[in-house]
Description:
globular; 10 helices; two-stranded antiparallel sheet; about 30% helix; alpha/beta; single chain; 9-stranded mixed sheet
Amino acid sequence: xxxxxxxxxxxxxxxxxxxxxxxxxxxxxxxxxxxxxxxxxxxxxxxxxxxxxxxxxxxxxxxxxxxxxxxxxxxxxxxxxxxxxxxxxxxxxxxxxxxxxxxxxxxxxxxxxxxxxxxxxxxxxxxxxxxxxxxxxxxxxxxxxxxxxxxxxxxxxxxxxxxxxxxxxxxxxxxxxxxxxxxxxxxxxxxxxxxxxxxxxxxxxxxxxxxxxxxxxxxxxxxxxxxxxxxxxxxxxxxxxxxxxxxxxxxxxxxxxxxxxxxxxxxxxxxxxxxxxxxxxxxxxxxxxxxxxxxxxxxxxxxxxxxxxxxxxxxxxxxxxxxxx
Length: 325
């Protein structure tokens, strides 16, 4: 795909049509008025009760005052949990996850509901944001500093974290603290590259490779998928997919924050069991099939290795060259 002006305009037209088609299926279960300038965390979830306690606790501690969550057919109590959170606007969509560009269409519909928001952080329930100054610096202040530096969005690296023992035996405690259970990450083996010409890229963004999946599961992926344009600082910016936004050139800045990605713990077992039914993106299906095959062949498999590092702070990630100031 070459992103000529004609191709970009065709994409914008197609996205507008898809949003219009998806709009009748978006149910609003609860929404409260939002004070101008208040930031919003937006996520699409399905059967996320293992992640949500940590997700909410982490981001509330960072100063988040409003969440906007789209539930896509949960059956594990997720919807009831969301409705019990007083700072959470709750939406539902029963559409096909894959046909919505892995929820990008739904996220764009929800983005439109918050034109006066100070910022919008679009992430998944298994991700939590960290940035230079965290946890002492609130997310509002970080967003303000990025805006003052002239940025319209803030790009991130997705940092897979894991525990020191077997994946299938790694569990959060009763308080749901996933970082206490999955405190390790790969301390080396990453590459961060800009595409030679983003206009010729199907998914124009930074090419970030590395982490435990590439090291232990599939050593030569076609493309690095660890970049995500998660923090949007102004209205009028749309998601092409959960990782990239339009205007497309905004996806090419160095990562300035990280998303701690909690995939590899005991909860992966039920996720593997339903992933075919979910019809996630083909690349995601392949990855989880490969992880599942490894765990089936070796139930005691652990991602821990001599290069594992215990996560301490975002400044540690700056020192390692994984995020920039």
